[in-house]
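User: Could you check the structure of this?
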Amino acid sequence: MSLAGRRALVTGGTRGIGLATARALAAEGARVAVSWLRSADDAAAALAALSAQGATAHAVRADVGDPAAVRRMFAEAGDALGGSPDVLINNAAITEDGLLMMLADEAWERVIRTDLGGPALCCRLALRGMIAGRWGRIVNVVSPAAFLGQEGASNYAAAKAGLVALTKSLAREVARFGVTVNAVSPGLVETQLLATLPPARRQEMERQVALGRPGTPEEIAAAIVFLVSPAASYVTGTTLHVDGGLAML
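Assistant: Sure, the predicted structure tokens are below.
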């Protein structure tokens, strides 16, 4: 599973699934850059955790829904890592929920721009270096909402479904250059969001999971690391559902 010498960029990489992924990549020897947007404290804590395990790590503030900020992020990450990232994990995302007929235009546009447009631009910027090096790994973090729908979150579901289609299309475009593109679809995961749910709502959601429990960020990270590792060199264009049997697709 060694990723020694690889340069990884994890968007939204300072907490939850993103941080677990950054730490797992670093444990396999990759140099890691993580992006953050809102919490400088989270960024500092993430860097401290990565440094404590002996990783070469860098944190960069960027809104992935802003093309200029994404370009700056890649320039800064490339300088910090000693070259363009050859592993890209598109994890950053936002939600602005509401019934479609009541949803503000701005809420639709922000979610689509961040959750679909952001990963698309990150892929475009990463691919030049990956193609030149004839090696690259891209993993897009999607959601069961892309496959099952989600009431009150049509913008989020549409963005994630679009990201699944982007994953498949891009995988076909770049396979001949030694670049693989895959997706991971986490289900119910122990994150800060889950911790804020009322107990009754949490129990209702857990009943939909065949394994009867939420996953951990580390379990999702393990699947992502597999997809960027030599063990998955013959896997591209697919979605790995890491959801405890929620979707069963």
